[in-house]
Amino acid sequence: MNELKWLAFEVTPKCNLNCIHCRTNASSDLQEILTYKQITKTIDDIDKRFKPVLVLTGGEPLLRADIFEIASFAKSKNWRVGLATNGTLVDEKIATKIKAHFDIVSLSLDGSNAYIHDNFRAQEGAFNATINAAKLFNKYDIPFIINSSVTKRNQHDIENTYKLAKSLGAKSWYMFIIVPTGRAENLRSELISKTDYYKILKWHFKLELVEKNMFIRPTCAPEYYAIADLYTKTHDIDYKRRSLSFSTGGAKGCIAGQSIAFIGFDGSIKPCSYFLHKAGNILENSFLDIWDNSTIFKNLRDFNAYTGKCKTCDYINTCGGCRARADAYFGDYLAIDPYCLYWSNNASK
Question: 0.90 cut: is pTM over it?
Fold first, then answer.
């Protein structure tokens, strides 16, 4: 039976920003649906079998009035609990409360300067607020990671963003390859090209070989694992994959519905936060029932159910293809990942 190792719980759709790539279409006008009792009941249900890393996300989770109470409940179950925030609401008082209730925090940073980041976040001053949050986390010894989303408008700044994340003291840096869902559906023309995707992943892998202080890993980029394998074999490199203690292990590409899951603000359960198809809803069935019996989850765990080149690929167990991206592009989460690189003649060069 597949073990749930990591769960993102979207506790609110409210947000003080209107980011151009938001998968939730979050805004300040939206209302919360799930009650504290419904959320904690789900945590109780899951705790019967699993103790995953729980990430409370949104929207902006700090806008939820009982966010710290939810975190405390999960902590009482001996779960490790993380907070995913844009950082703009973090001040001295909030930082001390985060210190008392969370094990780790993720900050969103989409550029190395205010012009690029604020453009992504559609809010002037967002960059300075995020930098201030990082400084406060350092002051109060709160471990944090930085997530950076990439499109054509900021791909030239990727290396500078990595350097800034490192200088801020982040424990890890995750480079997100955007999947066109939510508001990002309007960014299809801005998504990085397949050719640039390959170049960026190759650059990232070479960086990982020499970066020893900060954990780095691309996200929603399962082909990275095939590239790493091919490159190390053709260049005779002794590569030992590292893993952050709050990650899912770092041993495989797409793990949606296999060891991770997402619960939306309306109670919907998905294999990951970018998936379009819903596997069920906690307001109708228990999480464990859906985790065990959903057709979507079963299909994702059965590689024989995959179609096209993924079905016969040597790297099906290593890469797996981004199931959410296949879903977004083809309406078929079992189809080939449109960013597949293995079949390129340059894949191992």
Answer: yes
